[in-house]
Design brief:
alpha/beta, 153 residues, 5-stranded mixed sheet, single chain
């Protein structure tokens, strides 16, 4: 079993229509479950403004929002797929944007661990077949199984 995963942090076909709405929806689940402190969502929003997390991956845009480890009580990875794409600024850019359909929320309580998790997710989202599978998911259980079999952390 992968300790980073929690079925309660997998949200499929969300209607969230902005980065703020995405962070509120999935971030509140992290807080409610005790994986993050009460300032977590604000931490996500602040970090996104300064260091964007959109990743161009070909056809499907992906975002990898995360924040400082001080906001995280227990390391977890969340997944959200979106009904409609949401614009995120591209990582390393001041103004370029990408339309995102898949969001991986990285909640890591340790900086070194964060780098490992981020590298693994970036590797995965560069694989078009994996992204195609993500967009075909119908149930949380399917999503959990796909993530568990691909995240060897």
């Amino acid at each position: 079993m992968n300790n980073y995963l929690d079925k309660g942090l997998i949200l499929l076909n969300s209607s969230a229509d902005s980065t703020a709405a995405i962070f509120e929806e999935i971030g509140s689940d992290m807080i409610t479950k005790g994986y993050a402190n009460s300032e977590y969502v604000e931490g996500l929003k602040a970090r996104e403004k300064e260091f964007p997390t959109g990743v161009p991956t070909g056809v499907i845009g992906v975002a990898l929002p995360h924040t400082d480890a001080s906001y995280v009580n227990e390391s977890k990875i969340g997944l959200m797929t979106l009904k409609e794409p949401v614009s995120f600024r591209i990582m390393g850019s001041d103004s370029d944007e990408i339309e995102v359909k898949v969001v991986f929320l990285l909640g890591c309580s340790d900086g070194e661990e964060h780098i490992q998790v981020l590298q693994k997710i970036v590797e995965l989202v560069q694989q078009q077949a994996f992204l195609d599978q993500l967009l075909q998911l119908q149930t949380v259980e399917e999503a959990y199984q796909l993530l568990e079999s691909n995240l060897d952390l």
